[in-house]
Amino acid sequence: MFDPKWIRENPAAFDAGLDKRGMAPGSAAILDLDAGHRALVTALQELQTRRNEASKQIGAAKGRGEDAAAQIAEVAAIKAEMQATEQAAQDAQAALDKVLQGLPNLPADDVPVGADEAANVELRRHGTPPKFDFAPRQHFEIGEALGLMDFEVAAKLSGSRFVVLRGALARLERALAQFMLDIHTGEFGYTETSVPILVRDDAVFGTGQLPKFAADLFVTTTGHWLIPTAEIPLTNLVAGDILDAAELPIRVTAHSPCFRSEAGAAGKDTRGMLRQHQFYKVELVSVAHPDHSDAELDRMTACAEEVLKRLDLPYRVVVLATGDMGFAARKTHDIEVWLPGQDTYREISSCSNCGDFQARRMKTRFRSEGAKGTQHVHTLNGSGVAIGRALIAVLENGQQADGSVVLPEALVPYMGGMTRIGADG
Q1: What Cα–Cα distance (Å) separates residue 143 from each residue in 150, 166, 275, 418?
Q2: What local confidence, expressed as pLDDT, does residue 415 receive?
Q3: 275 is catalytic
Q4: Does a structural domain hold residue 33?
Q5: What is the DSSP letter of 149?
Q6: Catalytic residue among 310, 347, 360, 420
Q7: Which residues fall within 8 angstroms of residue 215, CB to CB, at 6 or more apart?
Q8: What is the mean pLDDT of residues 260-288?
Q9: Domain carrying residue 256
Q10: Is the overall model pTM greater than 0.90, yes or no?
Q11: How many domains does the chain have?
Q12: pLDDT by residue (tens digit) across 384-403?
């Protein structure tokens, strides 16, 4: 969400940012709408002044015992004109808001420019992909062979893009969540938070999913939205607040189910657990001072990386190009884990600095000590990490020729001492 005043003062920079996003210039049309709205507001203020003056004249005339019919008629006419002008101003504001709400965040200056993921830039790699003396299998082949991953039963219950996990794999899913939460809360200073998974329109609007991406979400008969990520309730914890600068940064984390319609993913990753309607994530959210949000993005990325390091999973970090970034992001680091069954890296975490884009939508500000005014906070979010994809990576990287899976040492305490998942798991 953008401030029209900033666009008035920086039209060239605004259009340049849209161009990097692959969009046509938009400042002229926005400024026309803004000028029309401001003209109506000015007209309304002038009508208010005229009405006040006419009302005083009525009182003066009556005080002198004179007929005030003309002044009364004038006030009535002004009132009718004010109502019409006020409605026109509201309509003009709504038209301006509709345009602004549909525009993505502008990219940071150091984000690579490009139309799609081909322009993403790799920052670093960690770990070496394992070598196998057999053809590595994909996670669903491993899980189904173990008898612990069932897509057919899930389809009977819920349709496609769902899974039933049993035994050791169900425990592994739970173990991964506990392992991640322990790291992020015990070592990295995030506060564990249990949040609603049903939220109202304002919350989904605040983080940028509404109104543009309604088709990607599930909505209930009561009008509540099922969260596609815990980013929504976690970020909106401070919606409408004026924070003290000394409170920043605020760092929170949550383990939650996530729900996505995958409306635009027809034909993509139809086998297995990579792209599902329901999945689990440990989410990280930071509310930061604008001067420190770039450093906070690097810190958040490092926190998510540490999870993969301790799981002995090879990964790489890329910075997304302008055409591959999410709607609300100004800069995004993707962490991609190595999947031997696919012989490629796949996203397992996406850490984004949204600048003040979400804060403006949520009306969240902070005040520095001694300062008269307030500023919008910066918000950041990232997966720390996606649990289902971590489970996939553990299976594929730990697979053995006999069909069993060797577990990372860090997970053994969370698995009750289990070091390997076999067909009897």
Answers
A1: 8, 10, 16, 17
A2: 98
A3: yes
A4: yes
A5: E
A6: 347
A7: 261, 263
A8: 88
A9: 117-421
A10: yes
A11: 2
A12: 999 999 999 999 999 999 99
- Calculate the dihedral angle through the C-alpha atoms of 209, 213, 218, 222, rounding to the nearest 10 degrees: 70
**Within-domain flag for 107:** no
Instruction: Decide if 64 is catalytic.
Output: no
Catalytic residue among 350, 352, 383, 404: 350
AA identity, residue 352: S
With cut-offs at 50, 70 and 90, classify the pLDDT of residue 66: confident
Indicate the pLDDT class of residue 265, thresholds 50, 70 and 90. Answer: low
Residue 310 is a catalytic residue: no
**404 in active site:** no
Q: Who contacts 56 (Cβ-Cβ below 8 Å, separation ≥6)?
A: none
Does residue 110 fall inside a structural domain? no
First-residue to last-residue Cα distance in the chain: 50
| pLDDT reported for residue 195 | 98
Residues 311 and 185 occupy one common structural domain = yes
Place of tokens 């692959």: 22
**Rounded CA gap, 382 and 317, in Å?**
13
- Is 346 in the active site? no
Which listed residue (137, 161, 171, 260) is catalytic? 260
Q: Which helix (H) or strand (E) is 297 found in, with range?
A: helix 293-310
From 161, 299, 361, 389, active-site residue: 389
The single residue of 8, 166, 174, 275 carrying the catalytic annotation is 275
- Digit-coded pLDDT (tens) for 278-330: 999 999 999 999 999 999 999 999 999 999 999 999 999 999 999 999 999 99
CATH number at residue 79: 1.10.287.40
Q: Based on the domain organization, do 148 and 23 belong to the same domain?
A: no
